[in-house]
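WARN no homologs supplied; continuing
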Amino acid sequence: LLQLTGIADFYELLWITHISLLVTAVFMAASLTFEYKYYDNPEVLPFAKSIFLMVAFFIAELIAFYFGDFYPTSTFIRIGIVLFIVSLGIHTLKRLRKAIDNSRKASIMEKLAYIDILTGALNRTAYDRDLEGLGPEDEKVVIAILDVNDLKIINDRYGHSAGDETIRLAYKCINEAFGDYGSCYRIGGDEFACIIRGESVDIFPQRLELFRRLVEETAAEMEYQFGVAIGYAHSEYENHQDIMSFLSHADAMMYTCKRKQKKVSGEFNHDAE
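OK structure emitted
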């Protein structure tokens, strides 16, 4: 406007623009310093470095301009802007990668929260969660409770490594028989459970026979006796209030199975149920 009215030439007013830019740069530097010092925000450091890099090239531009070297006019500031964008982009990519890594770690930790480390089975937390999730829409449900026979004796006589191997083998049998048709859990030291829903319930008897055969085959290869007792409840699920009686029935059946196995085999189980 001043140039159009003939009051002042554009070139004569550049110092105002330069001072305004310098004041802006000083204000931004002060703001970033305040944010870092008083709010202890380390996130401002990468941005501050990018800003200071651009300001350094802007100052170089001013020095060249006021010392009469007009050839590189706008060259320094362009380089500064490009470096600012590149620096900020690198920082953004690092933050994005860190966020992805944190998300992946959180996902892994969330999964581990529901996994039994020894066997790889779902754990008691997952079991309780899935029991809570049963509802009226689950018209067909089988809950099986399983218990490894004589685990304490195996631990005492053959060592805890043998006991751990027994638990892993028990889960292997359980998972091979029921894992593709339901969810398998380790809910205690020697205790497991399975929840089977929907149409998979119809083939539970066949999977049960497979489980018994797998236990027998595993027992035949062991240097010590191996057995797993099983009890189950099979019902059309109607009300969450029935869950305790539902579980009690499965638990009682499992202990009946265990007593029968011990009666047949004595101290150790030779023939798995």
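The two ends are 98 Å apart (CA to CA).
OK
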